[in-house]
Amino acid sequence: MMISEKLASSLSTQIGREYFAAIQYDMIAAYFERHALPELTALFRAQADEELVHAQKLLDYITEAGGIVEIPEIKKGLADFNTVEEAVHTAYQNEEAVTNSINELMDLAITQNDHLTRGMLQWFVDEQLEEMSLQSDLLTVIRRAGTDLHYVEQYVAKLPMTQKAVSIASRPE
Ligand SMILES: [Fe+2]
Ligand SMILES: [Fe+2]
């Protein structure tokens, strides 16, 4: 086994957090869809898919390093929100929590002199910067927009990840 049991189990816990994020983002996307906001819907669908990729990445790594993958029970997410701001704030807070847990995993890998895991986790550290800045910019735009949700939709439509998501969605079978 190339990683310690403690690291394998902590990384497994992180898989649970990534699945939770995917579920939460799917529910946020459903909220936006209910409120006829297609761009925000597409963005959060794409974010949910990304979280599944994160979970898979961790799962593959643990397995490759000879560890046991034991995914914990996934907690229930929030299904409804009072405002668009509240929904995005939920996502932002979740990204904040994930950033903290990734940092703790990195601390553990450093303590154990596990250079392999450090290398793997660095990708997540960089990814968290991107995701935190996306959600934080989105919150700024929503607060600036006030009741003008069309303005928010236009902003989201111009984001590179939304355009990518749309092009994948409209790809012929
Ligand atoms: Fe993630
Ligand atoms: Fe994320």
Radius of gyration: 17 Å
CATH architecture classification:
Up-down Bundle
Question: In DSSP terms, counting alpha (H) and pi (I) runs of 4 or more, how many helices?
Answer: 6
Quick one: overall form?
elongated
| Element-level helix/strand string | HHHHHH
**What is the name of the CATH topology?**
Ferritin
User: What hetero molecules are in the model?
Assistant: fe (ii) ion
Q: How many angstroms separate the termini?
A: 42 Å
Instruction: Assign the CATH class.
Output: Mainly Alpha
- How many structural domains in the coordinates? 1
CATH H-level name... which superfamily? Ferritin, core subunit, four-helix bundle
Estimate the strand proportion: under 5%
Name its key features.
173 residues; 6 helices; binds fe (ii) ion
Outline:
The protein is built from 6 helices and no strands.
Account of the 3D structure:
With 173 residues, the protein is mainly alpha-helical. The protein has one domain: Up-down Bundle (Ferritin), CATH 1.20.1260. The chain has six helices and no strands. The chain has helices at 5-34, 38-64, 84-111, 115-145, 149-157, 160-169. The mean pLDDT is 95. The structure holds fe (ii) ion (2 copies). One fe (ii) ion binds next to helix 1 and helix 2.
In terms of topology, how is this protein built?
Elements: H1 5-34, H2 38-64, H3 84-111, H4 115-145, H5 149-157, H6 160-169
Helix pairs in contact: 1-2, 1-3, 2-5, 2-6, 3-4, 4-5
The protein binds fe (ii) ion (2 copies).
